[in-house]
Structure formats: structure tokens, C-alpha cells
Amino acid sequence: MKRVMTTVLMLTGLLAVNAADYRLYMTLGLSAPAGTCSITESSDVYKGASVTRVRMTMQTTGIAGAFYSLNDTITSYIDGSGASVFYSKAVHEGAKNVLETAEFSQDRNSVKLTIHKYGEKPYSNSVSSLGQIYDMLSLMKFAEEQGARLLENNRQNSASDKNPVEVFSVPMVNGNQVVQQHIHYIGTKSVADASGKRHSCVAFSIRDFKNGPERETMRIYITDDSRHIPVRLDIVLGQSYIKALREL
After folding, report:
1. Which candidate, 188, 189, 183, 193, places its Cα nearest to that of 217?
2. Entry pTM
3. What is the DSSP string of the chain?
4. Which of 54, 83, 232, 239 is least surrounded, with the fewest CB atoms within 10 Å of its CB?
5. Are 173 and 134 in contact, with CB atoms under 8 Å apart?
6. What whole-number distance in Å separates Cα of residue 166 and Cα of residue 212?
């Protein structure tokens, strides 16, 4: 995972804020406390238009931080239809400092991607797609708000980790590329939050084929009720993953 600090946004009018805090755990055989994660959602204005700003910050600490240094921020500006308007990732991982930005076209089917590496000339690339392009946070929001509802009237009770059911597939910004993301429903599971309280959750697996074989990049657990609260996020990092448990 990599992340975000943007200096190119013209923003005014912070109206309302919803915040969710998570505790991070690094999992590589055993699970160990790894740091904190916060996701905030607010009403804002971007280039004169009303938008929703979603921001995720993640920071590793302690022994886990020495093993995998992470101090990143992701910001997404999303319009009223749920489409990405502007996205940025500030990456601060050890000596690595990179700013990634994505500026979406008016029809949201193309995007200008720019990579700013410290000490190097920025690299830009324009990419088009046949469908609406998402970013990481707008895709998570879509899965949270729409994915669970899609299944309320058509539950796949037989689904399991070994037999996932694909719900939808969408293109998503990934560095200097746009990669097709496949969202699978993998069943209803009992999941603990940061305090240990268990919740019945709908589980979604986000997968792609960026490096050849299909790989899972993230798993999202959302309460199986009308609230659709994300209780747990599993973010895959090679052979290990970071587990984010929500403080409820």
C-alpha cells in the first residue's frame, strides 16, 4: 500500500465529517499490533462542485513499523453519483516518497495519471476505459453502499472462500495503470471488531490480474444489516497482510 499528500486541490467549505478509526495488525503467520488507520468522509467543494471527500490515513508503529514502514494518506473526491473526480496517494514508506494523482474526465471513462517521485521529473499517462473508472476509496465506498444491497434480494448462501461468486467487475486506478478489479462475494461471516465484539458481516474479495495470475488485493467485511458498516479490512502485502479492525 502507498499513499497521499496533495498540493493541487482548491478546496473550501468543509460541511460535515464522519470518521472511523481502525487498529492495524500485521499478519505473517502470527498477528501483531501494527499501528492505526483512520477513514474520514466529509462534504466539500472541488472546482466549484459539491463532492464527498473520503480520506484514509495509515501509519505503522513499533516492531511491525520496523518490518514494514507505512505512513500514507489516500484522498478521493467523489461526485453525487459515486464517480471519482480526483484522487491522490501520498506514499511515505521508509526512504520512498511518491505522490500519485489521478484526474478524471467529465464522463469518468478516462483519467490522467501522474507519478511524482522525489528528485525525479513527474511522469504522466492518460488511460481510457469502456466503463466508469474508480479509485481505491470510491470502489470501497461502492462496495460498502451498493454491494451488500445487491445481495439482499439475491443471497448466495452456498458461497464460500473456495467457491466465491463474482458480483461485479470495474476498472480502477492502480499507480500509472488502470486495472480491472473483480469483486467477489464470499459469504456471510462472524467478524470481530477492535474491541472483540462480533458482527455478522457480508464478505467481499477484491481481485485483479495485474501481474498475471488472479490475486486478491483486499478483503472487506461489511455488517449484514441496513447500516453496512465496514468492520474489517484485510490489505494484502505480498505474503503477509495488514488487518484493520474498526473501533465501534
Report:
1. 183
2. 0.81
3. ------S---EE----EEEEEEEEEEEESEEEEEEEEEEEEEEEEETTEEEEEEEEEEEE-HHHHHHS--EEEEEEEE-TTS-EEEEEEEEEETTEEEEEEEEE-TTSSEEEEEEEETTS--EEEEEE-SS--B-HHHHHHHIIIIIHHHHHTS--TT-BTTB-EEEEEEEEEETTEEEEEEEEEEEEEEEE-TTS-EEEEEEEEEEE-TTSS-EEEEEEEEESSTT--EEEEEEEETTEEEEEEE--
4. 239
5. yes
6. 19
Tell me the average pLDDT of the chain: 81
User: Which carries the bigger pLDDT value, residue 58 or residue 111?
Assistant: 111
pLDDT of residue 242: 84
Pairing mode, strands 84-93 and 96-104: antiparallel
Nearest to 72 by CA among 44, 46, 36, 102: 36
Nearby residues of 201 by Cβ (< 8 Å), 6 or more positions away: 188, 189, 190, 191, 221, 222, 223, 224, 231, 232
Hey, what's the cell of 36? 492505526
Q: Are 248 and 197 in contact (CB under 8 A)?
A: yes
What pLDDT is attached to residue 9? 20
